[in-house]
Structure formats: C-alpha cells, structure tokens
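User: For this week's homework, look closely at the record that follows, marking any run of repeated tokens, and judge whether sequence predicts the tokens.
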Amino acid sequence: MDTKTVTNILLVGVGGQGILVASEIISEALMLAGFDVKKSEIHGMAQRGGSVVSHVRFGARVYSPIIPEGEADFLLGYELLETYRYLPLLKNSGKVVVNNLKINPPSVSTGQQDYPEGIAEKIKAICPASALVDGLALAKQAGSVKTANTVLIGALSRLTGVDEHYWLTAIERMVPGKTLEMNKKAFELGRGCAV
C-alpha cells in the first residue's frame, strides 16, 4: 500500500459475529506495520443481532476515523444483506470480501418480510471485484465456528499488501491463548481463499 494515501476498510455485519474484535486485530496489524490508524464503531443493538459497522483507516497520517461515502477501498462483510446495504460506501475501484452467510434481520424473523433473494449475485453485479468466502465452513475446519471473523481477516490480509508477519503478531496479541492456534489456522485458511 502507498503510505502517502489513506486506505479505508469498512467492516459490516450483525452483533455477535466478532466484528469489533476483528477491527481491533486489523488495527493492531496495521499499527505494527508502521501506519497511523484510526478506528470508529457503530453498534446500535449489536447484542440483539442488530447492525454493527466498524471503520478502519490507515496511512502515513490519518485525521478522521470515519470513512466518507464512496471512499471505502475494502468492504469486509460478515453477512450478505448487511454487505449489500453498505455497498454505497465503496469506491468504484473498491473490493468486497463477503462471508456467504445469511442472518435474518428482525423484520424477517417476525415474518414481516422475506429475506431478499440473490444477494450474493447482486453484490457481484455491483462490485465485480468481490470474493465470496465460506467463512463458516473454513472456521469449522479450523476448529470452531467462532473463528469465522479470523477467516475473513485472513482473506482481507492478502489484499492490503501488509506482510503476513504483522497479521499473525496482531492475532497473537489480541486473541485468548486457548483459542490462538485455532485462530491462526483460521487466518491461514482465509488467506488461502481466492480473493
């Protein structure tokens, strides 16, 4: 990555998916790599499965933690519908890494609406530079479905140009010891995805 410009990563999903932990790991890896990093989170009803959004910006000097509309370089989506909703924040040249996962919003759970069909296809149509990752399957392969957030970090890491060493060091610092090996495996599985 060019250190003179600011690069923007937007993480979106729902409460309970580990998005805030993921943004901490991403921020740590970028700081270790020598970047100035700013981070901001919006988590309304996160504990009830509500929308969670985290902004991570990095570069030689970053002045604001909020990504302006249409300026996200990377959209890291933990759930399909939430990813689709936040596509307007993505640059025309931006890239999407999205978990192939549907979590029903409250309106669908209560029967007021149906979950929209073909969301993955709609994301691909709007952003051809998008990668669909089966985060849950890879997380199970790593040893726990709770490592799906780390799978997606691994997939994102290949796009940033930041050395793998910084990512693994950040994971070692931010993840509890008892789950460290599973998370490292999840990261490597994600890093091996075609993005």
